[in-house]
Specification:
This protein is an alpha/beta fold and 196 residues long. Helices cover 26% and strands 29% of the residues. The chain is built from five helices and ten strands. Strand 6 and strand 7 form a beta hairpin. Helix 1 packs parallel to helix 4 and helix 2 runs parallel beside helix 3.
């Protein structure tokens, strides 16, 4: 049985590995599919890519975690027109490009992780219109987590992995892990700061 204050949904193993290592998380036994890791008041699931996988993983954590009032985090990579690779963002609004549904997240950005709007798309983009960041999971995560928690308890943290001069086609697992590892201290502060 899990009783963790913080549920974390991460799409890709390369995104999850630095957090699993840094926070010394252990694989849940008996083994679940997708994999769940626990420790330090965290329950982390590596969902796989796409909104459907993320939605199913939120439901999995909801069923496994018996904390009475957990908060929910989605962490991973995103693209943006001109932000430098490795820029860490707190997301204050998520929009599903397909349905146009939006969620406003009342999170206070900090100097080390400025606020940004995020657009969830079905496939990776070659261009990034407007000033939003782009990902493939956050709308599915937000819709699923909002079934079990108020928006005040939902946080999305993204790190820029591609932009107009660095195509998403050049992203590798090693690169993603390195970008995240470089910001692990800030990620820890964001994860363990009090949630109102």
């Amino acid at each position: 049985m899990i009783s963790a204050r913080r549920n974390i949904v991460i799409a890709l193993p390369a995104e999850a590995k630095p957090l699993i290592r840094a926070f010394e998380l252990e694989r849940l036994q008996p083994v679940t599919r997708p994999p769940v890791y626990t420790g330090r008041d965290l329950a982390l699931v590596v969902s796989g890519a796409g909104e459907k996988a993320v939605h199913e993983s939120v439901n999995l954590l909801h069923n496994l975690n018996h904390h009475p009032n957990p908060c929910w985090y989605n962490f991973g990579i995103a693209g943006h027109a001109d932000l430098p690779l490795g820029t860490l963002l707190t997301i204050n609004q998520v929009t599903d490009q397909k349905t146009k549904k939006s969620w406003i997240l009342p999170i206070k950005p900090v100097a080390t992780a400025p606020g940004c709007n995020l657009m969830t798309v079905k496939t990776a983009l070659d261009d990034y219109p407007g000033s939003a960041a782009y990902d493939m999971e956050a709308a599915g995560f937000t819709a699923a987590a909002n079934q079990f928690a108020e928006l005040e308890q939902i946080r999305i943290i993204k790190i820029i992995s591609d932009n107009q001069t660095n195509s998403h086609r050049r992203i590798s697992g090693k690169m993603v892990s390195a970008l995240i590892q470089a910001k692990i201290d800030i990620i820890e502060q964001l994860l363990f700061s009090p949630v109102e």
